[in-house]
Design a protein that fits this description.
Length: about 140
């Protein structure tokens, strides 16, 4: 009895996985056939580019990646590319949570003040070095 239940459960899992795989393949095929020029895509080789031309008759696509045009098979397109959002370390706390806007502005003001102070100190050091008499001139 246990063996029968195990076989039925195993068969159900295989059937479910098969349906999921078919569904995913259909979504991928629909995406590839509906590609339009101007869409940013990423290939299976991780090349990022914009679609220039789609030839459904021969299952080919032409993409432009930074001035280089490439003709690829439609199956080489992995997905649409979305550029990840950039978040500066100054805009989040140590746990990665966003800081309130007033804290970000205060941190930027502190940074500006610190860089101005460092610049002033460096300028004073340069001026002090110029004011010192040269030891070479004394030796001559």
């Amino acid at each position: 009895m246990f063996l029968v239940v195990l076989i039925v459960v195993f068969g159900a899992i295989m059937l479910w996985q098969s349906k999921q795989a078919k569904k995913q393949q259909q979504q991928q095929q629909d995406f590839r056939t509906n590609l339009q020029p101007g869409t940013e895509v990423i290939t299976i080789g991780r090349i990022i580019g914009k679609v220039v031309e789609v030839d459904n008759q021969y299952d080919e696509i032409v993409i432009d990646s930074e001035g280089t045009r490439m003709r690829l098979a439609l199956s080489a397109i992995a997905r649409e590319y979305t550029r990840p959002a950039y978040v500066s370390d100054d805009e989040v706390d140590e746990n990665g949570n966003p800081l309130p806007k007033d804290e970000i502005e205060a941190a930027a003001d502190d940074e500006t003040a610190q860089s101005a102070e460092a610049s002033d100190e460096a300028q004073e050091a340069v001026e002090a070095d110029r004011a010192k008499p040269s030891t070479e001139a004394k030796n001559d």
